[in-house]
Amino acid sequence: MSDTAETNPDAPLRIAVLAGGLSHERDVSLRSGHRVASVLKHLGHNVLVMDVDARTIASLKAFSPDVVWPLVHGGHGEDGGLQNVLIALDLPYVGTHSDGCQRASFKPTAKASVRAAGVLTPDSVTLPKAYFSQLGAQEVLGVVAGHLGLPVVVKPNQGGSGLGVSYAENADELRTAMVSCFAYDERALIEKYVEGTELAVSVVDTGEGPRALPAVEVVSQGRYDFDARYNPGRSEYFVPARVDDSVQARAQEMAVTVHRALGLGNLSRTDLIVDAEGQPWFIDANVIPGMTEVSLFPMAAQAAGDLPKLYDEIVRHPAVRP
């Protein structure tokens, strides 16, 4: 950080917000970036939103920010690559070190890591697209359905916002789901479906250790897909979630365990399903949660208290420093 920011902890900061990029989640990323920038500008910070492209490195050098807040969603923003560039540029940044990004970004790796930490997660198999041509699609899907049972959820190895994610309860739907998934990734995670209440638990760490925010309950018309997430009217949110206090506490504890197990930094969001017995199941971890007007992290932060204050604390305590 600049000398002024170091000597005066309340001084305005020069903040670069990275958004956009070339992923399937580009539009959501831009909305997240401008939403966060608006809050930070209102706090008096000097904020520049940069659409990630061939000019980004030169722009970062010219702007010389005190801190960078990467908000590029999807594989290219959350797999550690962008974070490695920022580390190489000796720029402090909000979020997670590239090592934690890699563990969380690849869904099978994340599931294996949290399972080793004692977290329940649905059984699954991960298969590359090439196997379906080499071994025969019908034969492979028959083996998978026999092993996991139906219904299942099919999702890309990487990515978020529900893109390429499908629910399948019979053989025909499973075939269709695989085609949809492979449009987004060369590898597919096929996961046993757990019926229950969808919760999202955000975790923040501003230097005093990770703490969970109130759980957000998601109720959508149909599946909680991309359209349900970002088009108002298809989903309803309850924060805190309409679950017993003991269930919410277990969900929050699981989210903190996931955050620690994956080595995450300033902020994360863990998506869970709570079954009929009140048991939370880990579904996914997000190292760069959405920050749009209908995103779950800001809802939880607002319910916990002062959202602008939290954002200010985050930029003043970046998780990764040179």
CATH architecture of the largest domain: 2-Layer Sandwich
**Secondary-structure element sequence?**
HEHEHEHHHHEHHEEHEEEEHEHEEHH
CATH class of the largest domain: Alpha Beta
Number of helices: 14
The end-to-end span amounts to 10 Å
Query: What is the CATH T-level topology of the largest domain?
Result: D-amino Acid Aminotransferase, Chain A, domain 1
Main sheet attributes: strand count, strand direction, barrel closure: 6 strands, antiparallel
Give an overview of the whole structure:
This protein has 322 residues and is an alpha+beta fold. The protein has three domains: 14-95, Rossmann fold, CATH 3.40.50; 102-119 and 195-317, ATP-grasp fold, B domain (D-amino Acid Aminotransferase, Chain A, domain 1, 2-Layer Sandwich), CATH 3.30.470; 124-192, ATP-grasp fold, A domain (Dna Ligase, domain 1), CATH 3.30.1490. 41% of the residues lie in helices and 21% in strands. The protein is built from 14 helices and 13 strands. Strands 8, 9, 10, 11, 12 and 13 form a six-stranded antiparallel beta sheet that branches. A four-stranded antiparallel beta sheet has the order 4-7-5-6. The longest helix is centred in the first third of the chain and has 17 residues, at 26-42. The radius of gyration is 20 Å and the shape is globular. It starts with a helix and ends in a 6-residue tail after the last helix. The mean pLDDT is 90.
Q: Would you summarize the structure shown here?
A:
Keywords: ATP-binding, Cell shape, Cell wall biogenesis/degradation, Cytoplasm, Ligase, Magnesium, Manganese, Metal-binding, Nucleotide-binding, Peptidoglycan synthesis. This protein is α+β, with helices and mostly antiparallel strands and 322 residues long. It folds into three domains: 14-95, Rossmann fold; 102-119 and 195-317, ATP-grasp fold, B domain (D-amino Acid Aminotransferase, Chain A, domain 1); 124-192, Dna Ligase, domain 1, CATH 3.30.1490.
